[in-house]
Amino acid sequence: MSLLEVENLSIHFGGLKAVDNVSFSVEEGEVFTIVGPNGAGKSTIFNLISRFYEATTGSIKFDGRDITKLGAEAIAPLGIARTFQNIELFDHSSVMQNLLVGRHCQRKTNFLAHAFFLPSVRREEIEHREKIEEVLEFLDLQAYREKMIAGLPYGVRKVVELARALASGPKLLLLDEPASGLSVEETQDMAFWIEDIQKDMGVSVLMVEHDMGLVSQVSDRVLAIDHGAMLAMGTTREVQSHPAVIEAYLGREED
Amino acid sequence: MRFQFKTSYNDDINIFKNRYHVFWYALLGAGLFALPFVLGDYYVAQAIFILIFAIAGVGLMMLVGHTGLVSLGHAAFLAVGAYTTINLEKLGVPFLIALPLAGIFTGLFGAFIAIPVLRLIGIYLAIATMALSIIIEDIIVMAGPITGGVQGLSVDSIKLLGDWVSSDIFTVDLYASPYKFYFLCLFVAVLVTLLTINLLRSSTGRAFHAIRDSEVSARAMGINVARYKTLSFGISCFITGLAGGLLAHYLGHINHEAFLILTSIELLMILVIGGMGSVHGAFFGAFVFGMLPLTVTVLIETFGAPLGINSATFPGLSTGIFAAILVGFILFEPYGVNGMWLKIRTYFALFPLYRKDMFKRQKTYLKTERMR
Ligand SMILES: Nc1ncnc2c1ncn2[C@@H]1O[C@H](COP(=O)(O)OP(=O)(O)OP(=O)(O)O)[C@@H](O)[C@H]1O
Ligand SMILES: [Mg+2]
Domain A1-79+170-255 classified CATH 3.90.190.20? Predict the structure, then answer.
């Protein structure tokens, strides 16, 4: 059984078929990448999986469980964490506070316990920080621990968002263009991190990315889509050389 | 110049971050404790007023400053707290039980109101809560048996333990024993502040902050936005209800005029002046709000009298000055008195390495292409 199974997924915005009958699955421990030109429907697939959008037809199964009808807030507790194409951090909080929000779905105490700050809450807070410390160390973010997001450079924010997703202890990580806007060196770091996330942490990754260097370096399988429809699936090389994909990116030769 | 080294996770979690922190708050505590013994009754009454509005401010701050939801209707919850306290006391419930019960009732009432109201955002939420403030004025007038109608209710002195122990020690009255009233308010203020700080340093408070900064992201982190907004509204109303119970006894006589929409607006102004999004801010704001009429009167008497200006020739002068101060803050110091305080503190902490443009506001990235 695959970790994530997407079957015949479609969403129509009025007449626009943003995602049209897409099926794929992400295996445990796999890095699966979706590529496609701008407006192909990649982010929309992410928003369908994280339940921000209602699917018109089709189903999404995670860990054998149908999540097609769940609320968006029910997704993180199942073990799916995500990042956003346009960074969505909590700007008026520190890096630490952001990562602590990432651990929200791991809390075991309720607001009454919080109001009195019972010993169980303190224990939990320490536990959160121990986990976060590992993530900070892994992503080399210790220097930014207490910094406010609003003052951080773009590249660092990108990493903080990855850190926040990792802090929740996910089984599946959805990364929407993790390398967009990053320098060559930063992209290389990102590639190593994604490999480590897969190999050392055993977390599966579903990624959207335009940088084909990064895609070929980390992906086990690649799916190409255009206008919401599937074009080709396979290794990076297979997909890159597929005639339909070349056509989607470069246009028809006779044009 | 001083550096803070964190050596354990508890350094991160504790309320007091270091020895200096403890020292200054101990000093503040001592000052607040000594206050009624040093100041005259008039100023003690003033301090009580400030404390009551600080409590209400802390309550409203939870909603506005920490969760990012505006309310122009909090006078309504002051009223619910006030009338519930008084009526419970009339039924023979001792004050020490009536007040928390009134707070809880107000909190539940607020959470109930929140369910439909919090579907709205921004200006629509402001309008809906403003409507609440207007409706409650009418309800107070109509609900005669509970509220005394237009005449209102006169409020007896506080019997902490009710008729169970009718000793004078447990009777608190603004005129007979202002210092007792002061300590009662101080106690509630400290308690409410501790509860707030505790919430803010655990996942509930972080969820509020998350909702304030990015709802989309908050949901992706597994935060049930609707539920946490309702919770924030409930907690905010709980605290405001407590302030309402104290306010009723402070005023001695209450009718609908104590809970006008103007009160709601004043509460919001307290937060803006004090500094949005900080617990300190509510206290700073309440202090400015409480001391302003007095300061203006003194100023007019000292400087205006020789020129023939007095409050009779210029009615509304004090309101005008208040408004001018408010506009000044919005223009020059959006983080309020708390922001000024932080700058002064940082200046001394970093001395002599302070840079002049340190607090220039940073440009933040434009968020194009939001998902919603
Ligand atoms: N909420 C929405 N309402 C209407 N149309 C939408 C909505 N969300 C996405 N779309 C449309 O769906 C199509 C796919 O958008 P999507 O954001 O998924 O593209 P993408 O593949 O992520 O592109 P990019 O590489 O630019 O990020 C676009 O034409 C977009 O305008
Ligand atoms: Mg996209």
Answer: no
